[in-house]
């Protein structure tokens, strides 16, 4: 059995109610739910939430909300892995056992069904515990700057001041969209970022973290531009 788990707690502070805030004509979470359903990868698409309004919106857009997430898994300090592990254990206690689980973030309007299918293929082909979405940094991280408390600039790695960009190793970061994993890896709390994970590479123009109002505005611009391109 293959399970999609979309974590969506109600306590977002920087963008209040961001999981169900309207984005391009739909509640934000609807984009993740619809991508999961259209991917045809999953036997169940579950939203894990502690919030009744989010639960109602999720059900309206086709997801299941078979439980309310416990309060101890809905605070500001709880990470993704225990939330997904809770959903996997709930499913094991109430129905067929799960073999592969995909955590899809509720604020991932750029996630595509084809990307989810590719992620499952990578997980199965690689034999790793996880396969998750990544994209490349737009600039060499070896030439990154910091601004100190005295408002002066310095390099993180000053030894690369004279290095040419093309001579520096390309760096990647978590795209913040989806994380396929084997059920036993989630249940064991196995670390996501490590040698037992395989990348699912996404283009930078389809990746935007959404944590602040500025992120949200940028995501809307990107979404509008992509919609026009594909129209």
Short summary:
This protein has 231 residues and is an alpha/beta fold. 32% of the residues lie in helices and 21% in strands.
Structure description:
Pfam families: CTP_transf_3. The protein has one domain (2-222): Alpha-Beta Complex (Spore Coat Polysaccharide Biosynthesis Protein SpsA, Chain A). It is 32% helix and 21% strand. It has 6 helices and 10 strands, in the order E-E-E-H-E-H-H-E-H-E-E-E-E-H-E-H. The strands form 3 sheets. It has a 6-stranded mixed beta sheet, sandwiched between helices. Helix 1 (28-39) packs across helix 4 (113-126). The longest helix has 18 residues, at 213-230.
Helix content: 25-40%
**Tertiary shape:** globular
What is the β-strand count? 10
Read across the widest sheet, the strand sequence of neighbours is 4-1-5-9-6-10
Distance between the termini: 35 Å
Total separate domains: 1
| Sheet having the most strands | 6 strands, mixed
Structure annotation, total helices? 6
| Overall residue-averaged pLDDT value | 95
Radius of gyration: 19 Å
The parts where pLDDT drops under 50 for at least 5 residues are none
CATH class: Alpha Beta
SSE-based structural type: alpha/beta
Enzyme class: transferase
Pfam family, one: CTP_transf_3
Organism: Massilia terrae
Protein name: Pseudaminic acid cytidylyltransferase
Set out the fold topology.
Blueprint (H helix, E strand, L loop, with lengths): L1 E6 L14 E2 L2 E2 H12 L4 E5 L3 H9 L19 H15 L5 E5 L8 H14 L3 E7 L8 E3 L5 E3 L16 E11 H6 L8 E5 L11 H18 L1
Parallel strand pairs: 1-4, 1-5, 6-10
Antiparallel strand pairs: 2-3, 5-9, 6-9, 7-8
Helix pairs in contact: 1-4
């Amino acid at each position: 059995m293959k399970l999609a788990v979309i974590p969506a707690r109600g306590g977002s502070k920087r963008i209040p109610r961001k999981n169900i805030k309207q984005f391009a004509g739909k509640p934000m979470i609807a984009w993740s739910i619809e991508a999961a359903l259209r991917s045809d990868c999953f036997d169940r698409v579950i939203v894990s939430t502690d919030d009744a309004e989010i639960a109602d919106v999720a059900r309206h857009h086709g997801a299941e909300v078979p439980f309310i997430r416990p309060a101890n898994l809905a605070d500001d300090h709880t990470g993704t892995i225990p939330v997904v592990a809770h959903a996997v254990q709930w499913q094991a206690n109430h129905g067929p056992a799960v073999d592969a689980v995909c955590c899809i973030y509720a604020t991932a309007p750029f996630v595509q069904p084809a990307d989810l299918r590719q992620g499952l293929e990578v997980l199965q082909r690689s034999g790793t515990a996880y396969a998750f979405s990544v994209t490349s940094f737009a600039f060499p991280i070896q030439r990154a700057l910091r601004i100190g408390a005295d408002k002066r600039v310095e390099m993180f790695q000053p030894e690369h001041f004279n290095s040419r960009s093309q001579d520096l190793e390309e760096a990647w970061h978590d795209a913040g969209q989806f994380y396929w994993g084997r059920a036993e890896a989630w249940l064991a709390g196995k670390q996501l970022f490590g040698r037992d994970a395989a990348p699912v590479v996404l283009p930078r123009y389809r990746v935007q973290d959404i944590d602040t109002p500025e992120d949200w505005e940028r995501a809307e611009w990107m979404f509008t531009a992509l919609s026009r391109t594909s129209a």
